[in-house]
Specification:
Strand order of the largest sheet: 2-8-7-6-5-3-4
Number of strands: 14
Structural class: alpha/beta
Radius of gyration: 21 Å
Helix content: 40-55%
Number of domains: 2
CATH class of the largest domain: Alpha Beta
Number of helices: 16
Bound molecules: ligand F0G
């Protein structure tokens, strides 16, 4: 068992959550077509669907909300945000947008198009969708050890640099429009990327003249792991590590709903390409709103400017990663497998190991998520074949490298006892694991189907 790192804050405001009965939850699942995204939030006891936008803001951030400047153009809050962004990331141009996928929608069509390839350590689902919506194809090149939940390795989020170079040569460098480094690597289990790996990828990008983008949703958690695990950075500040990391890329697209500890927001950063930034401003005005608010209220800009700094505090990051390590420790004791070592924003249960009787096309990660809700009112989600979806060319179900049920932990929201309840529920499920059914899809939309699909249990 791992000791819990106590919260470096006290609680000033609370929100009541309610427990439902198992019989009620059974009905609610049926009504939701066995899709956790169709459940009402108020019917969930502990909500681990995502760590995105579900964060608790600080007293300073709430005070910032009241100071928000709602001017359409040139708001004070915009300049606060730009100053924070330039200071932390060291980039010349910072553009707010309303969330991460908005950044992708604004940037990717300017760089990618029909026939182009984008290569990443691993694309998150909306990022993959925006590559495809821009007419291009998305290719993952994560290191092999990421695919084996039991293999212990410090940077399982890394790019396989040998494979990256092979892919560039296979497709032809003129066809590879973009390299994307997702930090931390969400789909591989919130696994970190090392600076060493970033340097290698940057060298390859430079050699072939391909722009390098950081998908920066969990950049601060990634920096904390670097400090813990990469010798060269043991004595560096989190801020210095972030500066170093971002110095290797040409741009970043960021969902600020994660490490910037707000409920809504996103950022685009461009290191120095003024011409690209000019085009980004054009797309932003068309899709998001004027340059100085980018789809956000002035108050959101203000809370984000403050949250960017709070997310870098080392005591907070120690507590934050400590929560994952504590929950993972409880699962170690119960011999429940997960992507290990545990990642930065959640515990990714190895559903394939827990439910070996369910094949990938009956979605073990989804099956475990549904069982967790039934058992204890806990909402989690699939990160596996159900989320991956169908091959865009053939329409056939793809098989993911792993079948995870993700327990994403919102920031500053749940306590040690909540984590205990989560572990207890999984231990109970483990006892009747062979009775948990697989699922089949009865209806699905063409893009990002996991958010909306209808399912039913196999008989
Ligand atoms: N990139 C990564 C790595 C993400 O994890 C997400 C969102 C996005 C981009 C898109 O950002 O939601 O602000 O539009 N991830 C959330 C999740 C939804 O639950 O992991 P967004």
């Amino acid at each position: 068992m791992k000791k819990y790192v106590a919260e470096p804050f006290r609680i000033k405001m609370v929100e009541t959550i309610k427990m439902t009965s198992k019989a009620e939850r059974k009905k609610k699942l049926e009504k939701a077509f066995y899709n956790v995204f169709n459940l009402r939030g108020e019917d969930v006891y502990i909500d681990l669907l995502t760590d995105s936008g579900t964060n608790a803001m600080s007293a300073d951030q709430w005070a910032g909300i009241m100071h928000g400047d709602e001017a359409y153009a040139g708001a004070r809050s915009y300049y606060h945000l730009i100053d924070a962004g330039k200071d932390i990331f060291g980039y010349e141009f910072i553009q707010p947008v309303h969330q991460g996928r908005a950044a992708e929608k604004v940037v990717f069509p300017l760089i990618l198009g029909k026939g182009k390839i984008a290569i990443s350590n691993m694309f998150f689902d909306t990022t993959r969708a925006h590559v495809e919506l821009a007419g291009a194809r998305a290719v993952d090149c994560v290191v092999e050890e990421a695919k084996h939940p039991q293999v212990q390795s410090p940077f399982k989020g890394n790019m396989d640099v040998k494979k990256l170079e092979e892919k560039i040569n296979e497709y032809g460098k003129e066809n590879v429009g973009l390299i994307v480094m997702t930090i931390t690597n969400n789909s591989a289990g919130g696994q970190p990327v090392s600076i060493e790996n970033m340097r290698q990828v940057a060298a390859i990008a430079k050699k072939y003249g391909i722009p390098l983008d950081i998908d920066a949703a969990r950049y601060a958690e990634n920096a904390y792991f670097i400090k813990q695990r990469e010798e060269e950075f043991k004595k560096s500040s989190i801020k210095a590590i972030i500066k170093e990391m971002f110095s290797y890329a040409d741009m970043f697209t960021m969902s600020a709903k994660k490490d910037a500890i707000v409920n809504m927001g996103g950022l685009i950063g461009i290191k120095r390409d003024a011409e690209l930034y000019q085009k980004i401003k054009g797309n932003c005005i068309s899709y998001e709103g004027f340059i100085t608010y980018g789809g956000l209220s002035g108050r959101d800009l203000e809370a984000l400017a403050i949250g960017l700094y709070e997310g870098l505090e080392e005591d907070y990051l120690k507590y934050r990663i400590g929560q994952m390590e504590y929950l993972a420790g409880l699962l170690d004791d119960a011999k429940i497998a997960y992507q290990s070592p545990v990642g930065g924003h959640g515990v990714f249960i190895d559903a394939k190991a827990l439910l070996p009787h369910i094949p990938y096309h009956q979605f073990p990660g989804q099956a475990l998520a549904l069982e967790l809700y039934l058992e204890a009112g806990i909402r989690a989600c699939d990160i596996g074949s159900y989320m991956l979806g169908n091959d865009p060319d053939t329409g056939k179900q793809l098989q993911a490298d792993f079948e995870f049920t993700r327990l994403a932990i919102p920031r500053r929201v749940y306590t040690q006892s909540h984590l205990d309840i989560i572990a207890e529920a999984l231990i109970t499920i483990k006892k009747h694991a062979d009775k948990v059914p697989g699922y089949k899809i009865t209806w699905e939309p063409p893009v990002l189907r996991h958010f909306q699909a209808h399912l039913e249990p196999m008989k």
